[in-house]
Amino acid sequence: MDRFLSSYLDIPPLTRTWMTVSALMSLMVQFRAIAPLHIIFDKYYIYKKGEYWRLFSSFVYFGRFNIHFLFSMFALLSYSGQLERNSFRARRADYMLFVVGTALATLAIAHALPDSTSMWGMPLLGPAVVSTLMYIWARRNPFMRMSIMGLVEFPAPVMPFAMMLMGALMSSGIPVWDIVGILLGHTYWFLEDVYPRMPSRNGLPRGRVLAAPRFLMRLLGDPIPEDPPVVVVVPETAA
After folding, report:
1. What is the phi-psi region of residue 237: left when phi exceeds 0, alpha when psi lies from -120 to 50, beta otherwise?
2. Residue 208 pLDDT grade (very low, low, confident, very high; cuts 50, 70, 90)
3. How far apart are CA 48 and CA 4, in angstroms?
4. At residue 164, does pLDDT exceed 50?
């Protein structure tokens, strides 16, 4: 019991909170305290019936206790946990901004898609966010080798596309979660990892565009970075 508690507390805080709420949500469904149809994303019930909790519950409910739920928790622990522990170490504000921003973007896409009963619908939004986390983790670990059931081996950046293909084959449908995750993940990766390093007109790096605001950094206890020195270019005058 002590080892389990120690392992549980060792999970980074945001990932641990997300996993705990998701497990509790699935437990309540399993014991019929709530019905799955009352917590999935459905625009009609949200805006016509005033069931606004669906905007939150659809991100933390990954289905009943089955192999799909266990896989989702494993993916959340693996990708979110490693990102929070490594890439976003001592940058909790940046990680929270990343996750919340991804959730809001997923929500916007879900509103633009057809109803949840359609093949393009997304009744659960959490898997799309996890797919985005997987894409970023894969991009930041380009030399790591991955495999599916030990049969096919490939570099980590191929993993999101392999999962999308496997999801399409297993469900015989459109892997909407994976597609949305790849689109959002690639957008974040470009804005956070590529664009800031691109030289501007004066030859200097462009700088980050998705940095967390300082008030959030102070609130979460992150170290405040020093402002970069201001470089003033004085034009030469003719002698």
Report:
1. beta
2. confident
3. 44
4. yes
Cross-strand bridge partners of residue 146: 154
Q: Which two tokens stand for residue 100?
A: 């919340």
Look up residue 191 and give its two tokens.
């804005």
Q: Are 98 and 88 in contact (CB under 8 A)?
A: yes
Q: Encode burial over 19-41: b for 16+ CB neighbours within 10 A, e otherwise.
A: beebeebbeebeeeeeeeeebbb
Instruction: Name the DSSP class of 105.
Output: H
Tokens for 78? 């693996």
Q: What DSSP character marks residue 199? A: B
Instruction: Report the pLDDT value the prediction gives residue 206, as an integer from 0 to 100.
Output: 76
Q: According to the model, what pLDDT value does residue 6 have? A: 87
pLDDT for the residue 239: 42
Asked whether the beta carbons of 81 and 133 are under 8 A apart, the reply is: no
Dist CA 219 CA 97 (whole Å)? 13
Paired tokens of 62? 């990954």
Residue located via tokens 């797919």: 131
**What count of residues does the chain have?**
239
Tokens of 208: 């980050």
pLDDT tens, residue by residue, 169-186: 877 678 899 999 999 999
233: confidence class by pLDDT, cuts 50, 70, 90: very low
Structure-token match 């933390």, residue found = 60
Question: For residues 177 and 32, what is the distance between their CA atoms, to the nearest angstrom?
Answer: 26
Strands 152-155 and 145-148: antiparallel
Name the region of 172 (left: φ>0; alpha: ψ -120 to 50; beta: rest): left
- The pTM of the full predicted model, rounded to 2 decimals, is 0.88
Q: List Cβ neighbours of 235 (8 Å cut-off, separation of 6 or more).
A: none
